[in-house]
Amino acid sequence: MSADGLIVVDKPGGMTSHDVVSRIRRLARTRRVGHGGTLDPMATGVLVIGVNRATRLLTYVIGSAKSYTATIRLGQSTVTDDAEGEVVAATPAGHVTDEQIRAGLTPLTGEIDQVPSAVSAIKVDGQRAYKRVREGEEVTLAARRVTVSRLDVLAIRRPGPDVVDVDVDVDCSSGTYIRALARDLGAALGVGGHLTALRRTAVGGFTLAEAATLPQLEERAPDVVNLPLAAAADRFFPRRDATADEAKVLSHGGPIAQLGIAGPYAVFAPDGSLLAVVSERDGRARAEIVLAPA
């Protein structure tokens, strides 16, 4: 069975995030596998997978910032806001200038209130929004505050007289829908828009540079973990080293003295093993999750 830790996977197109989890369960020979943030089947790139005890770190991974490269096609709207859905409207976009495209992206940068794509995994009255859409329902989701800290144009291409392809580089907060950026740019320019390519290049500090493909993981099985639990926590959180006495208290879920470290942060035992992820409140450092072996 595989060790506890994280795997940075370069997800291929055409697979759901759950498909990747299923494959890793087989390779790692354990049921305790989860992912740190869904990627649509069309999308490729960084998918952080937790194995065994490291699945408990995934809550923090899901909430971290993300980076993407994407291609927005102007001139066509689709039911899913990406290339997987049928085209529902086409408006010639050949007249849209490069300057208008750049100007149209400006209001989509910074802190924005974004309406998620109706075909998303958000639950409406207990059922996923995409299921309701597929069943013919009109679904309008509430806007949510997200941050797009960087939205750079890499290239503007004109593959045909009626469509314009815009390649962008995006840094954003968790919960941002790149499909919705494509839709909203198209709407602002009056020609419609959807996403034709999406590649996630980073999740928190985990990047494509360290990502393994599924064939590479197949070759390494069952030793598929590339970041053991302690190393993963050390990469992801501020670090605190506990004394032997503190380690004993913390491993049983008890509080220890606070040090004024902005949390959450990882606490390590004198032998270098990971004890817990803690945050400081009410004058004490208290465990959010205890990771010391039982």
UniProtKB/TrEMBL annotation:
Catalytic activity: uridine(55) in tRNA = pseudouridine(55) in tRNA
Keywords from the named record: Isomerase, tRNA processing
Listed GO MF terms: RNA binding; tRNA pseudouridine(55) synthase activity
Domain Pseudouridine synthase II N-terminal: 25-178
EC number: 5.4.99.25
Family classification: Belongs to the pseudouridine synthase TruB family. Type 1 subfamily.
Known role: Responsible for synthesis of pseudouridine from uracil-55 in the psi GC loop of transfer RNAs.
UniProt protein name: tRNA pseudouridine synthase B
Organism: Micromonospora pattaloongensis
Record lineage: Bacteria, Bacillati, Actinomycetota, Actinomycetes, Micromonosporales
